[in-house]
Amino acid sequence: MHRIATLDGHSLITPAAVNREVLSPANARSAEADRSMAEAEVALILNIAARQIQEQRAPAQIISRLISSLHDLREKTGALWRDLIPLVQNHPVAAYFHEDPFTRWSFEKPRGYSGDAHLIDFIYGHPSTADEIARATPLGKTLYGYTRQAPSAVAVRERRDLLTRYVDSVADERGTGTEILTVAAGHLREADRSAALHQGKIQRWVALDQDPQSVGSTVRDFQGTAVDAVDGSVRGLLTNAYSLGTFDLIYAAGLYDYLTDKVAVRLTQKCLSMLKPNGIFLFANFSTEVPDDGYMETIMNWTLLLRSHADMLNIVDASLEGERAERQIFFGENRNIVYATIKKPA
Ligand SMILES: C[S@@+](CC[C@H](N)C(=O)[O-])C[C@H]1O[C@@H](n2cnc3c(N)ncnc32)[C@H](O)[C@@H]1O
């Protein structure tokens, strides 16, 4: 009765009142027990890794066990998981995995933020990462051989190739006047293999990114082509800071994973408003089926907003606000990345 009286929707609901009700002494005791159990489990996982390292087991065996144990623990512990992350990051075994130059780049964040374009170059195996890989210890090289074959990395390479195919097929269909906008373009590696770009079928390919170093690299790599690298941000797009015109294809990959639903919807609406009739908007997101999520969030300190098919559809539908448009949600081959496309009506 007491609970109904205070949380009945009429009384003032303050955090203190909710805590009093939800965290009753009995509930608090059980939450404390869950936390102790979760902490004990993470300690066990890390101790097993430490023992395997000491026994000089094969690095692939050690990392694969850790990845799958952290994934299971993340799933099992729900809201408690967030508090376990520092326990993993501060454990001595983290140093072993940081010998992998890809994992270390992610953890140290030399560019000051997560998921920069150089990090993705480790996944692509791009020559720009050759020096760091050459400088890695033999263990680091072996671990990198494993992490670059992780399902999420395989999906990122497939994503790059899928983007190239979209660009080329839109350019084939629309001819030499084709205009493309890439939001959060990074180093625009998908353009390296674009037949349409090399055959001069694209009139203008705007590659927008907020990192001046990445913009500089795109300017250098694509000098003399239709690529126009622009130093700009999602915020700039949303506040109409640029006059970019309209496009046949607009896409964003490696960006929505960092955007809340609210910003994702606003950006989708903005991009739809910049499409020509029959233009296509595509966005990609890591899916909730990523098996190395626990390793990424702890050892790599790389947190992403993972989305399901339903989450993607919600963003698309909220963006369309009841307007009719052809829309599609689909997964890549190993289901680690999910895609949404919207076609603007003629
Ligand atoms: C994971 S990388 C993806 C790069 C590229 N799209 C790819 O698929 O390889 C993310 C990129 O998003 C850019 N980025 C992140 N937040 C951004 C924002 N708010 N506005 C513009 N670019 C952003 C970063 O600078 C980085 O280059």
TrEMBL record:
Keywords: Methyltransferase, Transferase. SUPFAM superfamilies: S-adenosyl-L-methionine-dependent methyltransferases. This is Methyltransferase. InterPro entries: SAM-dependent_MTases_sf (IPR029063). GO terms for biological process: methylation. GO terms for molecular function: methyltransferase activity.
